[in-house]
Amino acid sequence: MLKNIKIALVGNPNCGKTAMFNALTGSKQRVANYPGVTIEKKHGFFITPNHINCTLIDLPGTYSLRSRSPDEKITRDVVMGQYKEEDQIDLVLCILDATNLQNGLRLVLELKQTGKPMIVALNMIDIANNRGYHYDLIKLQQELGCKIIETTAIKKYGVPELVQLIDNSIPNLSCSENTWQAPDLEKSRDYHIKVAQILDRVKTSHGVPSIISEKIDNIFLHPVFGSIILLFILFVLFQAVFSWAKIPQDMLQNGADWLQGYVGMILPNSLLGGLLGDGIIAGVGAVVVFLPQILCISLFIIILEDSGYMARAAFLMDKIMASAGLHGKAFIPILSSFACAIPGIMATRTIENKNDRLVTILVSPLVTCSARIPVYTLLISIFIPVRTVFGIFNLQGLVMFSLFAVGIIFVLLMAFVFKFFFLKGGKEPSIMELPSYKLPGIKNLLIELIKPAKSFLRRAGTIIVSIMVILWVLSTFPHAPINAKLPAIDYSFVGIMGHYLEVIFKPIGFNWQIVAALIPGMAAREVAVSALGTIYAISGSDDAVRQSLSVVLQHSWSLATALSLITWYVFAPQCVSTLAVVKRETNSYKWPLIMFGYQIGLAYLMSFIVYRVAVFFS
Amino acid sequence: MRVILIYNYVLNNLYIGKIVKALSKFKKLECGVINKIDESILGGGTDCVSGEIEARLLEMGFIEGATVQVLQKGMWGGEPIAVRINNNNTLISLRKKEASVIMTQEV
């Protein structure tokens, strides 16, 4: 008898598949990426009462085995055992939404043809029964020729029985011949007719749709009230990310600062101390501070997703997003990117279409993130005069606002460019299900919340640490000569590179000091400010650096150079962490390279224009 | 080309004396029974793979003989629309272009 079996978890979107995955496997899950595609390879583990180890593979939700994208092809290929990254599966577990059997049963009919043994779960049976949907299970079992069980995954109802059922069926698992063929239009209609006949025979009563859901929709999808509610929810999300997450964020920052100081104290003036303190601790600290924001945004997204509101939000935003060629669902990632592009890019996972998701990933770093604010604030306070324009506006505030606005305009513009020139293939009709509203399950919520936190920390611990070490080495070696007159960084690789690269950046008005500051600024945008301090040989606390830096910069930079640098910061890919996340999310080097390339190109072009125009007028 | 297609289509359906109306023309809360889903009415003017819209509509539960009701309409130009099929629990949202290939008659 088998000791280990593999089970494929299949179902329509919104059928409660992920809740079932969590109910069966709890926290025993492992998430990796399939090579070459953007989807996650989610494996979970559980043991049956007869001590059989089960590996559950959570596959992307689908309405048909007909593959429309490389991602969906995986569902089909894994089920049929044609995917080389996965072994043959022993059993298919198909989850159906009991309140909406038509679409689910069509998938079951297709799955039957693959010849794999199958168990079908009628999920969300509590909601179905409450609404008056009742089915004759024995008849349905005969019609489909496989075991059927009623479950409510988020309440764990029927889950132990399901495990028992899997256990009992293990001794006689056998595959029959695979006769599946991609259904054409005629075949699709045949499936419809078959399903209607089956439902006629097994349905003991047809329920009524949720009146409450309909009433909520009348408000939430109302052209005026719906938009106001959406704005309010977005406002709370913003508030949570910028204010509430600030407290734990400051605590983490203080902790990292303290640790850095402590290392500096016990290992003064040593290489090891420098590497540990200024390299690793400062670098990792700069990344880990984003964890509270990521948790905050993820929590919101999971609640919005599980309650059924996310699809409504996409419905309301559909027209605006469509004008730029983006999917309605792209607005949450773009919104999250105001905090940081990293959680924003991670939030694109809710977009199923591969091209739509790639476009959203590519444009999200153009949104003005919070790390740009220190740089903007510094440069604006030095170079933009405090003046009132049009009677009421403060010129500095106006410049700040326009930088945000330019970011958003370019998000839409670049999305349009990508969508209509480069990623136009594979366009899909925008048909989407709006599931009825339901309360999210707390336990399911917690399991889902841990996932982004874990994958973020793992990345911070690997890729980002190594990049931080490299940047530290570049700005520390070679050492300055003993009788050096210039600051040590002038003699380092960063200084040398700054001098070399100056030629390239001269046309946009950058001097070598700026270029050299941009290199460590790759670690995190705001690091450029302290790097400028180091290069202009100003030492002291952060505030002191900022104070004296303004005096120095005012004398050594022209207005045109400052404007050019601000423009550079609007567009340039000044953040390796973002590129590392893109690498991980797209599972290829191609997309981070494309992102880096287009952002550098755009930044150079825009800075050039701004610099030349400013020089012309001054 | 497109005019001829629509003309043919109307002709094909009018001879049996039924009033045919595309789902995209529905007012809020209006009901109808689908009598034909036919992507060729768009005359091939879609960015999607040929037959994809029709296939997707079928997969989401739109089928000849099903009753449909428009429950919600979007703010800008009445797009997208939220449709209930066969008194089901979930709604399906679609844009006008997709809704225009669904032909209905009165209940």
Could you outline the blueprint of secondary structure elements for this entry?
The complex is a heterodimer of chains A (618) and B (107).
Chain A: E1 4-11, H1 17-25, E2 29-33, E3 40-47, E4 53-58, H2 70-80, E5 91-97, H3 101-113, E6 118-123, H4 125-130, E7 134-135, H5 137-144, E8 147-150, H6 159-169, H7 185-202, E9 203-205, H8 211-220, H9 225-244, H10 246-266, H11 271-288, H12 291-307, H13 309-323, H14 331-336, H15 341-347, H16 354-363, H17 373-383, E10 388-389, E11 393-394, H18 395-422, E12 432-434, H19 442-476, H20 493-505, H21 512-518, H22 527-535, H23 542-556, H24 559-571, H25 576-586, H26 590-617
Parallel strand pairs in A: 1-4, 1-5, 5-6, 6-8
Antiparallel strand pairs in A: 2-3, 3-4, 7-9, 10-11
Helix pairs in contact in A: 3-7, 5-7, 8-9, 9-12, 10-11, 11-19, 12-19, 15-25, 16-18, 17-23, 17-24, 19-25, 20-21, 21-22, 22-23, 24-26, 25-26
Chain B: H1 2-14, E1 21-22, E2 31-37, H2 52-59, E3 67-76, E4 79-85, E5 91-94, H3 96-99, E6 102-105
Antiparallel strand pairs in B: 1-6, 2-3, 2-6, 3-4, 4-5
